[in-house]
From TrEMBL:
This is Xanthine uracil vitamin C permease. The keyword Transmembrane applies. It is a multi-pass membrane protein. PANTHER family: GUANINE_HYPOXANTHINE PERMEASE PBUG, XANTHINE/URACIL PERMEASE C887.17-RELATED. Belongs to the nucleobase:cation symporter-2 (NCS2) (TC 2.A.40) family. Azg-like subfamily. The chain crosses the membrane at residues 21-45, 51-70, 77-97, 103-121, 133-157, 163-187, 194-213, 245-269, 281-301, 321-341, 348-364, 376-405, 417-434. GO terms for molecular function: purine nucleobase transmembrane transporter activity. InterPro entries: Azg-like, Azg-like_bact_archaea, NCS2.
Length: 435
């Protein structure tokens, strides 16, 4: 036990096993909603919900345990909200690409991410894309997720006169979703640990009481089979054979790459891990996510990401990798609770999507709105995602306009060569998707 304490630097971090285990449990409960939300989102793309549930739990467990043992950070990893929406609603539903091909695209992006982590060239790529555009991508995904939540809740609906409008607020299912939104907002405002998860539980209970949600037949069972999704990504690697699909791979990579890096840096700063403005063992931490993404693609789930909910565990004292190991082990135990998938309806998950959207939109404050040449492409990314119902289209609009506005203000030399290349690629991408 002393060797374990020494390896995980208990003395330097002023922590102990009890604190770390409680922190790991807190982080797990705060993240647990993804076990039920991810199958719902990917299920919309035609994937088997049971298989996605199992893949989500296993990929999260493997990546989070690796994060704890190798990188030694109290950070949980699981399939990310936003990129799963891009997978389901933009790629599969929007572009009409089969989910089998899309999951192969995730695997290709994961392998590239793995190589970038191995050869430590992450910093080079991060530096080439302007900070404001990276921030805009995160904020835009937040807007898109919130919009999805409002639509799933029935609060926003299609309107022939104005494209979108207020939905039927008197419908019982919409009222249930509104209840969930209000309860979750209140819990979040009061800084209640695991607010999103508690909000989902309370909404489900109320739905059952009023007969809007069917009671589950059982609480515990063996984990659903992975057969419908396992290895599909490998079998369909040959499908990645067009510019459109390579753009999809690139978008998976960009979104996951910067979301993970930004979240990890934010959490490391909050916990006081940063030294000389650098995150120690950053390579190992990114490797954990790359492994999670690769494993997840093979098992059958969308890209993984570091979870900001890990801050809940840090808030109760989690500082070492033991916290993450605890979270990872709990994801394995969670495999027993798949029957609860039947009670997680769109009305139950809608509040979680809206709240995560609010949290991600907080990135807006860091964009340089005073410089129009930067503000305009950033704005197009943010507003483009929900209005085009596509994360990739939003990114394309901003990345195409950015070199133009920079050249117009005689700052062409400040634009990295990669940005000119991406502008041309995204221009071709939009042309191809229109024809």
């Amino acid at each position: 036990m002393d060797n374990i304490r020494e390896y995980f630097q208990f003395k330097e971090l002023n922590t102990n096993f009890r604190t770390e285990i409680v922190a790991g449990l807190t982080t797990f409960v705060s993240m647990a909603y993804i076990l039920f939300l991810n199958p719902t989102v990917l299920g919309a793309a035609g994937m088997d919900k049971g298989a996605v549930f199992t893949a989500t739990a296993l990929a999260s467990a493997i990546a989070t345990i690796f994060m704890g043992v190798v990188a030694r950070y109290p950070i949980g990893i699981a399939p990310g909200l936003g990129v799963n929406a891009f997978f389901a609603y933009s790629v599969v539903i929007g572009m009409g690409i089969p989910w089998e091909t899309a999951i192969a695209g995730v695997l290709v992006a994961a392998l590239i991410f793995l190589l970038l982590s191995l050869f430590k060239i992450r910093e080079i790529i991060i530096d080439m894309i302007p900070e404001d555009l990276k921030i805009a991508i995160a904020a835009g995904i937040g807007m898109f997720i919130a919009f999805l939540g409002l639509v799933n809740a029935g609060i926003i609906a299609k309107n022939d006169a104005t494209l979108v409008g207020i939905g039927s607020l008197g419908a019982p299912t919409t009222l249930l979703a509104i209840f969930g939104v209000i309860v979750t907002f209140v819990l979040m405002a009061r800084k209640t640990p695991a607010a999103i998860f508690i909000g989902m539980i309370l909404t489900t209970i109320v739905g059952m009481v009023f007969g809007l949600i069917d009671m589950p037949h059982q609480l515990i069972s063996t984990a659903p089979s992975l057969e419908p999704t396992f290895g599909v990504a490998i079998a369909h690697l040959g499908d990645i054979n067009s510019l459109q699909l390579w753009i999809v791979v690139l978008t998976f990579l960009i979104v996951t790459f910067f979301d993970t890096a930004g979240t990890m840096i934010g959490l490391a700063t909050q916990a006081g891990f940063m030294k000389d403005n650098k995150m120690p063992r950053a390579g190992s931490a990114l490797m954990a996510d790359a492994i999670g993404m690769t494993t997840g693609a093979v098992l059958g789930t969308s890209p993984t990401s570091a979870y900001v909910e890990s801050s809940a565990g840090m808030a109760v004292g989690g500082r070492s990798g033991i916290s993450a190991v605890t979270t990872g082990v709990l994801f394995i135990f969670a495999l027993l609770f798949s029957p609860l998938l039947t009670v997680v309806t769109p009305e139950v998950t809608a509040p979680a999507l809206i709240v995560v959207g609010v949290l991600m939109a907080s990135n807006l404050r860091d964009i340089n709105w005073d410089d129009f040449a930067i503000a305009a492409p950033a704005f197009l990314i943010i507003i483009g995602m929900p209005l085009t119902y596509s994360i990739s289209d939003g990114i394309a609009l901003g990345f195409i306009v950015y070199p133009i506005t920079m050249m117009a203000t005689k700052r062409a030399k400040q634009v990295q060569p990669l940005m000119y290349v991406l502008a041309i690629i995204f221009l071709l991408f939009l042309y191809l998707t229109m024809h």
